[in-house]
Design goal:
By secondary structure, this protein is an alpha/beta fold. The protein has helices at about 15-25, 30-40, 45-55, 65-70, 75-100, 135-145, 150-155, 160-165, 175-190; strands spanning about 5-10, 30, 60, 60-65, 105-110, 125-130, 170-175. Helices cover about 55% and strands about 15% of the residues. The strands form two sheets. The chain has a five-stranded parallel beta sheet with strand order 2-5-1-6-7, with helices on both faces.
Length: about 190
């Protein structure tokens, strides 16, 4: 039977690097944020978002992510409203992906908000990736060409490392690439032997 392993961590923690390394080992990884972005471009989801947030978030039939972000990211209620539209679609998509790959011993689901969305409940184990706050801030500032204040606001919409760690089965302390890969290898060995 396929084991579903959740992979999560705060913004800038290094989840993507861990996911890429796991993929390089031939293990399938579902990147929830990428899939959510794709699903947000489907007519059904665009229509639901437009109905919930107004026609101004859609330009010529295409969702304006910038306009939508301005509405939801400083408003927890509106962010929850958006999540209530998108998350069920991601869940359906993920379930069909799992069905398609049901002969794999492991399938990973990488999601920044694995706990916040409740997705962790469908995982056999959860791995949290952590990194020091300043490292995370610098990574996101450089990656997204943004400022410290914007990143801190985004972090406030996510669980803290402490909250994630308390509910996780394994923790990866992402301090160096080699050290992180070694921790991934150790966890994969433990999972294979369970």
């Amino acid at each position: 039977m396929t084991k579903i392993i959740g992979l999560t961590g705060g913004i800038g923690s290094g989840k993507t690097m861990v996911a890429e390394y796991i993929k390089s080992l031939g293990i399938l990884v579902y990147i929830a944020d990428d899939e959510a972005r794709e699903l947000m471009n489907t007519a059904k989801v665009i229509q639901a978002i437009s109905a919930a947030f107004g026609k101004e978030v859609v330009d010529n039939g295409i969702l304006s992510r910038d306009k939508l972000a301005k509405i939801v990211f400083n408003n927890p209620e509106k962010l929850q409203k958006l999540n209530n539209i998108v998350h069920p679609e991601v869940k359906k998509h993920f379930d069909s992906w799992v069905e398609k790959h049901k002969n794999s011993p492991f399938l990973f689901k990488e999601a920044a908000i694995l706990f916040e969305s409740g997705s962790y409940k469908y995982c056999d184990a959860v791995i949290t990736v952590t990194s020091p706050l300043e490292t995370r801030l610098q990574r996101v500032i450089n990656r997204d060409k943004t400022d410290r204040e914007s990143v801190l606001k985004r972090m406030q919409n996510q669980w803290t490392d402490e909250q994630r760690i308390a509910k996780s089965d394994y923790v990866i302390h992402n301090l160096s690439v080699d050290g992180t890969k070694r921790q991934v290898d150790e966890i994969l060995n433990l999972l294979k032997n369970q």
